[in-house]
Task: inverse folding
């Protein structure tokens, strides 16, 4: 499958880990529709690891769903997800076992691709644990991609090798639609900050057809669930979400959508931030010089710019951003008309620079357009 924009959806791992079942998936599907997440663009509901029996079916050799967790089978779950207008995602692994020790797809790629198609999958997250050490990982992703392309169903391949083997150099050639470029996230400011910073120089490899995936979001988890750590404040969560939107990466929610709070729901459905993430030109961000914080800019379609001033420090700083560094010299009679991406409010026109105080771990994000003064 060739995604033209960063995929959006929900993955079970961050909140539920191994504790997934038929009821949880159906309730999550209901929540995605009832709370307006599908309408906002979150279309994939992806079941992660621990969905299957510990052994393949002895007669067919197929991976089969856990009979206790999914007593009606996986096709029944898939049909329900589809009935809500959502797309259904599943999980497997390039190794002999998955990361949690369930059957992997090594040497079963074509059988498993056909099985996932029979289950009605539209998305496959493909992990990298328990891979035989002497087998080329690039080959394994090419193999599963070929199997999916010949399974009779359009399934997006989400490669998940955690950035190993210089993945950004070759992953597009495999036919993957997105690829994990980092280790696993946890629910802490340090985790999402370090993950984002590790990929600033690699977002240039991301674009239509194959998007850099910097892991599922922890926004709104509040130190609950499978990847709980120190937890984050609402201010930190809004910085996390804004970073993911600015970077143009897949937006896979990870909090319990059945219990999502109003602040989080408003943030992840913010039309201005989603507009930045889903911009049709899919251009990478670039970092510019300034003072007091990190400054990222992204060229958008229609001549607009997305500008983010972020303060990763532990105390408040005034962030200074001179327009000279984006190609708008002080000598021309031009300025930037600024729209606050969090509120949608117009904040007037600035000439030559922006200088604004930004709280610790917070950010300011603008959609800007060049105007005559």
Result:
């Amino acid at each position: 499958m060739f995604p033209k924009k960063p995929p959006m959806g929900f993955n079970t791992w961050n909140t539920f880990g191994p504790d997934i079942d038929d009821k949880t998936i159906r309730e999550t599907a209901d929540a995605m529709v009832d709370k307006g997440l599908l309408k906002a663009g979150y279309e994939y509901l992806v079941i992660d690891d621990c969905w299957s029996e510990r052994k393949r079916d002895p007669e067919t050799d197929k991976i089969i769903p856990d009979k206790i967790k999914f007593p009606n089978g996986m096709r029944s779950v898939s049909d329900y997800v589809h009935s809500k207008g959502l797309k259904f995602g599943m999980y497997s692994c390039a190794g002999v076992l998955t990361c949690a020790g369930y059957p992997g797809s090594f040497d079963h790629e074509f059988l498993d691709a056909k099985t996932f198609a029979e289950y009605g999958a539209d998305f496959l997250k493909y992990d990298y644990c328990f891979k035989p050490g002497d087998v080329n990982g690039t080959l394994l992703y090419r193999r599963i991609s070929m199997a999916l392309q010949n399974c009779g169903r359009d399934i997006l391949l989400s490669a998940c090798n955690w950035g190993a083997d210089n993945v950004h150099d070759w992953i597009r050639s495999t036919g993957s639609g997105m690829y994990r470029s980092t280790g696993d996230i946890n629910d802490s400011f340090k985790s999402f900050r370090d993950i984002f910073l590790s990929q600033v120089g690699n977002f240039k490899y991301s674009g239509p057809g194959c998007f850099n995936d910097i892991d599922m979001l922890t926004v709104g988890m509040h130190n609950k669930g499978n990847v709980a750590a120190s937890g984050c404040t609402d201010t930190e969560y809004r910085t996390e979400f804004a970073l993911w939107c600015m970077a143009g990466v897949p937006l896979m929610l990870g909090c319990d959508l059945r219990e999502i709070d109003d602040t989080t729901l408003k943030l992840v459905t913010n039309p201005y931030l989603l507009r930045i993430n889903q911009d049709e030109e899919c251009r990478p961000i670039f970092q510019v010089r300034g003072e007091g914080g990190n400054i990222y800019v992204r060229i958008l379609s229609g001549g607009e710019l997305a500008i983010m001033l972020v303060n990763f420090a532990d105390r408040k700083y005034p962030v200074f951003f001179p327009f000279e560094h984006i190609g708008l010299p002080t000598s021309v009679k031009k300025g930037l008309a600024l729209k606050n991406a969090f509120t949608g409010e117009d904040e007037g026109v600035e000439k030559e620079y922006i200088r604004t105080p930004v709280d610790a771990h917070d950010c300011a994000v603008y959609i800007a357009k060049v105007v005559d003064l």
In short: The chain has two domains: 8-277, 286-372.
